[in-house]
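ingest -> validate -> predict -> emit
validate: passed (alphabet ok, no gaps, 666 aa)
predict: started
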Amino acid sequence: MEPTRRPATTLLSQGTILENRYEILRIAGRGGMSTVYLARDLRFHHVERLCAIKEMHVAAPDDHTRVLRIANFEQEAAMLATLSHQAIPKIFDFFADGGLVYLVLEFIEGENLESIIEQSTDFLPEHTLVDWALQILEVLAYLHDHEPEPIVFRDLKPSNIMLRPDGKLSLIDFGIARTFQPLQKGTMIGTEGYAPPEQYRGIAEPRGDLYALGATLHHLATRIDPRTETPFTFEQRPARDSNPDFSPEFEAILSRALAYSAPDRFPTAHAMAAALQELRPDHSYDQPNQEQRPAGAVTIETSSESDNNRIDRTALSLRPGTTFIDHVKQAGPQQSSTPLPDGTLPVRERIVWTVQTGDEVRGSAAITNRRAYIGSYDGHVYAISHADGSIAWRFRCQRGVVARPIAIEDSVYVGSEDQNMYRLRAANGRMEWSFRAAMPIRSSAAGINDALIFGADDGYCYCLDKNNGQLTWRQRTWGAVRSSPSVYQDAVVVGSDDGAVYRMAAEDGRVAWRSQLGDRILSSPAVDAGTVVIGNADGSIYGLSFETGHIKWQVRTQRPVLSSPRVLGGVAYVGSSDGAIYAVTVDDGAEIWRSQIANQITSSISIYSGYGYVGTIDGYVHCLNLRDGETVWRYRIGGPVTSTPAIGEGIVVVGSLDRHIYGLRL
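emit:
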């Protein structure tokens, strides 16, 4: 019997497990035929191994179309499995489930070039476009030289090119790439404006990819989207008409690539690369120009460029037969190849940039797509380049902002003490909608599918449709909700000032259980392996059963626990107002280590590559080794730190009560 098919309009919710292995974290992208999810591979118990899962709905009005879609998807899986290039995502798995088919791919972190051009206000410089073009041509040459037959990508465009944190490009979405069969006709495929004339007639060959690259470069160079123009009219819109700073040689290369007739274009990717290389005679084909690094970019002298920027989530290397908990108890040197945080860096070199605001910065930042989003008590939400501290935009609220913004797709969501939850456009900070609660919002929102969930001081937990800001449901607690909700599977877990932890159904807010603890709750819960870990103002860290809400264990500290726990590999890390960081097992609350680092901690710890980063009330930012809690480095900024550090591409972003936002070198 064929498995029950899920409707094409139904998306997988956060926490869904596929194949008893892949946990869905969020939607990474959607297209007409497929949805891409960010997921975690649960087979790697002790590290967070991320992957991209591409889901394709194969339902169709007739069996022939459905069989064709399945065949196309299997073709993509088989083709990707044969490829090995740093700019092409690796394929890890392929399976069918419930009438759907799935590809499990390497997760490529970064931002696509279409988003970059939408967010930019100036023309991209010629040398940047030449460097990008050479990288793309390298992978096109690899595809076109494929044996036994060339592979034609057939849908090259800015949105299918990812700029990774290390500055390298990757091609994504091989859904319509195909092995080249000369003059084979079929239906038109590709994207209008970028696709060459012959693809409109169903003919795909390697020189068509060079046309699409020319169209992509023309879009990036002129900021004119070819999808809004009459097809095949590039000769009427020369690049230098939009920006005379481009050289005539660069424009000539674009013109040849965009020739209407395929024989008039460059014969191969190698030939086009050679022509572009003439514009940079002092630089090799595959060596990036170090002088073109953006101002303020960080370079760590102890390792190569690629190592500096790679996000390595497997820094804690385990010996066979040991668990993460066993490992953190062991003494001995770190076994990871990831560069260690620079504990010997001179103090004066720790700060990369600072941004002054008009009031205290108590809230935390969210980093995505090379920007940090953070609020201040001056009533503004700031969008800051996390590399150099330049302000992309500011949005003015009516009162202070202490909630942490979250970025979902092209929007930023943040609550304010002016009682409003705002949806802002990530590109420019323009408000798309607002929703007003009855009292201030200090809880940070969580997203699940099309829902946005947060708490407010009026005692309610709210669920909005994130697309239009309409109220879906609200559920009352008996105290202010300043705890930020956690979404796990199809449930919402949140604490309240009434001293209770609530589990609610994400769909309708129905309360599954309410667990009364000792005092009010400002800590936000973490859910792992069936256990809810949360701090309480009674000075305890609690572990509750996710299924029933019953207290499984309790760890007492010396003072209130306002910080939120972070969980990695079965271990919860949480700070206390007694100034210590506690590492306890999620299963039974057994203490692994305790590190007394300050007089008071209300900031939550952030975890990156086997290290923890946390702020303290005495004004320090600490980097701790998670094996034993030992301090690797600490740096004192200008005031107390209640903000939780956010980490991206070698920069720690943190706010301070001294009214500044800091970018510190990792």
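Confidence is low (pLDDT under 50) at residues 176-186, 282-339.
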